[in-house]
Amino acid sequence: MNKIEEAIIYATILHQGKVRKFGGRPYILHPLEVAQILSTMTEDEEIITAGILHDIVEDTDGTLSEIEKRFGGRVAMLVSSESEPDYPDEPPYSSWKRRKEQSLQTLKSSQDIGVKMLWLADKLANIRSLSGLYSEHGEKIWQDLHQSDPEMQKWYYRTIGELVELSLNKTGAFKEYIKHVNFIWPGTFDRDKTRYKKYREVSVDGCRQIGKGAKGEVYRYDDELVIKVYNDNNTYRDVENEIAQSRRAFVLGIPTAISFGIVAVGSRYGAMYELLDSETISSFIVKDPGQVDIYAKIMAELARTIHGITVSEDDCFPPAKDRILSYVRGGIAKENEALADRCMELIDRLPDTKTLIHGDFHTNNVFLQNGEPLLIDMDRLSTGHPIIEISDLYYFYVVLGEDDPAVVENFMGFSYATSKRFFDSLLKEYFGTENAEMLENVKEKASLLCSVRMVNKIHKKQELSEKDRELIHRYMKQAEELADRLETLEF
C-alpha cells in the first residue's frame, strides 16, 4: 500500500462521523477533494498525501508526531503549515484574525512549493463551497462563519491569492480560485489573471549588484536595463503598487525611474527599468569617497525638491507620522507608557503638512544618469514634516552603525566614517548653513525619532537576548532624555 492509499484509510478513520459545516456532507470528502486538486498540479506523492491529511491535527485527535512516524517528516511539515495556532481560552471569532495572520506568515516564508500548492488546493475547495452558497443565499452566508465580516474574508482569500501567484499562476487551480474570489468580491483581481499568462523569466546570475535595500536588490542586467529583484515576501500587488506610485511621483515632479514591466526572477518578482549608463550614488561614493561632499549636495538638492512639492488630500498619500507613531506603539509603549505618551505628543504636534516625503531616502535608491538623479522605491511616499526624512537619513548613515559599523558598510558599500561625513555634509547643504548649534539641534530631534525606531526594531524579534535588552535600555534612556528636553520636533 502506498502513502496515498494509507493516508486515505487513516484520514477516513479519524474523520469518521464528522460532517462539513455547510451541506452536512461527510467530512472526508473535503480532504479527498483537496487531494484531487493537488493531483492536477503535481505528481509528488508527499504533497498529495499531505492534502489528504491536512485537517487531521486541527479537527481530530491525530497528532503531527504520529503523521511524521507514519508518513515522514516532509508530509508532517506540509500538514503543519496548514494547521493554525490554537487559542482554547478564546472563542473562534475573537482569535480569527490573529490565527490567520500567523498562519499566513508560514505561507509567506516557506520555500517549499508543496506548501503553496497545499494552501491553494485547500482554499480552492473551500471557496468553491462558499461560491455555490453565495450564489444561492448571498450575504447571509457570512453570519454562520467564525468571521462574519465579508471584508475580512476578502482580505484573507485575496492575500492567499497574492502569495501563491508567482509560483502557481499558470495552473488551472489558481485561475479557478481567482474566478471564485472575483465572483464573491467583484474586481478583487484583474480578470487577466484568469487567463493564461506567463511572466517573462529572467536570471540575474552573473549580473552585477549595484544596490540593495529593505525590499530587495538592484542588478545591472545589461548596458540599458536595470532589474530590481524584490524579496520573497513581496507580492505581485506590492510591485504593481510601487510602479503606480512611481508614475504618480513622476507626474508630481519627482525625478523617478519608471518600470516598464514586471518579470519573474526565479521564485521572486522583478521590475525592469531602462537606466542607460547609470549607477547608484552609493556606487559613485565607493569609487571615490573623496567626492562624498559632491554627492551629499546632489542628495540635499533632491530632498529639497521632494519636500517642496505640495499635494492635495485627493492625492491620498498617507501621513508620514503614522509610520513613526506605529514605531512608538511597537517598542517604547511596551517598555514605558508614560514615555510613549510624551513621544506621541511631540510627534502629534508636527504639522500635518501636505508636502511630500520619500520615506526610504538613501544613496542606494538614487541613480545618477548623465549627472541627473533618478529615484526608485516609491512605495513609502507620504506627506509630512521633513524632520521625519532627516531622521530616516540619520538612522541609515549614523545610528545603524553605532554598535557595528559593518552594518552600514555592508548596506551602503562604503566605510562608516564616510557614511557619517556624508550625513553631516548633506545636513549642511540641506539647511544651507554651517551653524553648528542649529545643526546639532536638528540631530537631537532626529535622534529621538531614531531611538523610537530602534526600540521598535529590536522588539520585532521573537526572543530578546541580553544584548538586545542592553540596547533597548540605552535607546530608552536616550529617548527619555531627549523627550524631556525638546519642546518641539519642528525646525
Automatic annotation (TrEMBL):
Residues 23-136 form the HD/PDEase domain. Gene3D superfamilies: 3.90.1200.10, Hypothetical protein af1432 (1.10.3210.10). Pfam families: APH, HD_4. InterPro entries: Aminoglycoside_PTrfase, HD/PDEase_dom, Kinase-like_dom_sf, MESH1. One of its GO terms (molecular function) is guanosine-3',5'-bis(diphosphate) 3'-diphosphatase activity. Residues 81-100 are annotated as: Disordered. This is TIGR02172 family protein.
